[in-house]
Amino acid sequence: MAKQPQRPQPAAKKSSPAPAPARRTEQKDTIFNTSGNDVLIFGRQNFIYMGIGLLLVLAGLIAMAGGAMPDPNKWEPERIYSPVRITLAPMLMVAGFVVVIFGIFKKSSAAESSTGPELQA
Question: In terms of pTM, does the model score above 0.85?
Answer without folding.
Answer: no
